[in-house]
Amino acid sequence: MLQALLRVTRKRWIFILCVFITFALIILGVRYWRPAATPQLLRLRAWLADPAAHADWAVQAGERCGNALMIIPTDGYIGFGWDDSFRLGHRHSGLDIFSPDGAVNVTPVVAAYDGYLTREADWKSTVILRHADFPAVDVLGIAEGEQIWTYYTHMASRDGHESFIAAEFPPDTQERFVKAGTLLGHQGNWAGSQIQFTGLHLHFSVVKSNAAGSYADEQVIENTYAPTLLLGLKRNEEEIWGCGSFNDIPQR
Ligand SMILES: [Zn+2]
């Protein structure tokens, strides 16, 4: 009788232990799982560890690749491209350009194209530019005279307390005309919340208009265009983005 009871108790303990171990593994997995170290991630790590050693990987703010329609919006290494995926089921809607400077509020961010700047009242780190009457880009499906937008974000401190957007563009700025190359702010690492973190970079995207004529939700890749073609960027044989040349897009 006693032996039978002990056996049951032991079984129950083993069961509880198994449940505990399973939960512990799940929690550790969610907390510490990282995607496999792809060449792309290894290169990004190498860049972040020592940008100066890889200066040839960087693009420059204000540079125009050939006769591309848009100019490069900031300095740095393009660590993630349009349509890259860094989580299951995720498609990146823009370019992530990682600063060569290693400190926030140093690396300039400039307008990629003439346009009308809006900074919504609650935007700490973001501005968007409206580009009316854009030239046709058949390969991307941009129609002649279409209205598109360029979106620039992460221009604030990690805790979100300090904005690095240029003083000329305070919150609730609406439709302020800026020329291509105008300083919009400086790179930061605010990810949009206190629990999310991001490295020091600019997220840049080219966004479609919605049915109401405003900007569409830029986090949905279908609402964006591939910025690389508009910036004249191409991947080289080592998969690093740099100035390329295209014969199939309109030139300035
Ligand atoms: Zn991004």
Question: What can you see in these coordinates?
Answer:
The chain is an alpha+beta fold. Helices cover 19% and strands 24% of the residues. The protein is built from three helices and 13 strands. It has helices at residues 2-32, 39-49, 227-231; strands at 58-59, 76-80, 95-98, 108-110, 115-119, 127-134, 146-153, 173-178, 183-186, 201-208, 224-225, 233-235, 241-243. Strands 1, 2, 3, 5, 6, 7, 8, 10 and 11 form a nine-stranded antiparallel beta sheet that branches. A two-stranded antiparallel ribbon has the order 4-9. The mean pLDDT is 90. Zinc ion is lined by residues 80, 92, 94, 96, 203. Residues 80, 92, 94, 96, 203 line the site of zinc ion.
Quick description:
With 252 residues, the protein is of the alpha+beta class. The protein has three helices and 13 strands, in the order H-H-E-E-E-E-E-E-E-E-E-E-E-H-E-E.
Order of helices and strands: HHEEEEEEEEEEEHEE
Principal-axis shape equals elongated
Give the proportion of residues in helices. Answer: 10-25%
**Low-confidence region ranges:** none
The largest sheet is: 9 strands, antiparallel
Backbone structural class: alpha+beta
Total strands: the figure is 13
Distance between the termini: 91 Å
The number of helical elements comes to: 3
Bound molecules: zinc ion
SS strand fraction: 15-25%
The overall pLDDT average reads 90
List the helices and strands and how they pair.
Elements: H1 2-32, H2 39-49, E1 58-59, E2 76-80, E3 95-98, E4 108-110, E5 115-119, E6 127-134, E7 146-153, E8 173-178, E9 183-186, E10 201-208, E11 224-225, H3 227-231, E12 233-235, E13 241-243
Antiparallel strand pairs: 1-2, 2-3, 3-10, 4-9, 5-6, 5-8, 6-7, 7-10, 10-11, 12-13
The structure holds zinc ion.
Zinc ion is lined by residues 80, 92, 94, 96, 203.
